[in-house]
DNA sequence: TTCTATTATCGTCTTATGGCGATAAGTTTA
DNA sequence: TAAACTTATCGCCATAAGACGATAATAGAA
């Protein structure tokens, strides 16, 4: 409805993922479908805050949502999101190892004895 | 220095990518190393704005930077970033086709003659 | 129906982000 | 050295985003 082209959706997905709490929510839901009442105690944020974050992930089509009685159940809609996160992690790890390598070389150039 | 663990770097990378101009900058630089003076005319933003965006991508270790005379040349440091963007695009396309499919079914249920 | 449980939404506040013009800093040219 | 170029940074403003408590909405229990 609101969004149409790939660029907008792409941006919406990436924006949804650029928040630490929402990344944690994904990890939490990797264990399977959970109701909000199960999610809440795992996060040190207010109910309204968590609800909003869940909705952002839902709007980005990353999460699915269904209502069962008085509970709302959230689950991963597109598991490809984990490939994405893993790919980002690989990039991050590469950066860390490069830093470590640079440190090793610097150390060496300063002499092994310190 | 400032950042240490994977979570922080991961977030920094994703945040860097959650902006339309920065995504365009990546596409632009996919053609190879470019100086800021070449980048500027391709974007309808002020020089200070572009400079800031380039720096955000640099800080996220996505871009490389080198100075040559009075010019600063930017280039893609980690080409894996394109795999990432392509993966997001695939997710976005999936969403679009699902929407189209839903529309088709709805149309059908309303009768072909309209 | 009334009470409780669960979750979404509203209003508000604070902070972060993006945008710009002006200025600074560094480099080459004159 | 002065002038011109190129790019980064600063200060400021407007808007977006995140957080929270309060309230609304809905479903099941009493």
UniProtKB/TrEMBL annotation, chains A, B:
Gene3D superfamilies assigned: Winged helix-like DNA-binding domain superfamily/Winged helix DNA-binding domain
UniProt xrefs under CDD domains: HTH_ARSR
Origin: domain of life: Archaea
MF terms (GO), sorted A to Z: DNA binding; DNA-binding transcription factor activity
Protein keywords: DNA-binding, Transcription, Transcription regulation
Domain HTH arsR-type as annotated: residue spans: 2-96
Pfam families in UniProt: HTH_5 (PF01022)
InterPro entries according to UniProt: ArsR-like_HTH, HTH_ArsR_DNA-bd_dom, Metal_resp_trans_reg, WH-like_DNA-bd_sf, WH_DNA-bd_sf
Keyword hit for Transferase: no
PANTHER family: ARSENICAL RESISTANCE OPERON REPRESSOR ARSR-RELATED (PTHR43132)
Protein name as catalogued: Winged helix-turn-helix transcriptional regulator
């Amino acid at each position: 409805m609101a969004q149409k082209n790939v660029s907008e959706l792409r941006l919406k997905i990436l924006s949804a993922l650029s928040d630490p709490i929402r990344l944690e929510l994904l990890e939490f839901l990797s264990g399977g479908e959970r109701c909000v009442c199960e999610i809440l105690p795992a996060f040190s944020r207010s109910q309204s805050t968590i609800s909003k974050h869940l909705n952002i992930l839902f709007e980005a089509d990353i999460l699915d949502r269904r209502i069962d009685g008085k509970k709302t159940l959230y689950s991963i809609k597109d598991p490809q999101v984990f490939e994405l996160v893993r790919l980002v992690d690989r990039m991050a790890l590469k950066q860390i190892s490069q830093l470590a390598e640079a440190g090793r070389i610097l150390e060496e150039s300063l002499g092994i004895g310190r």
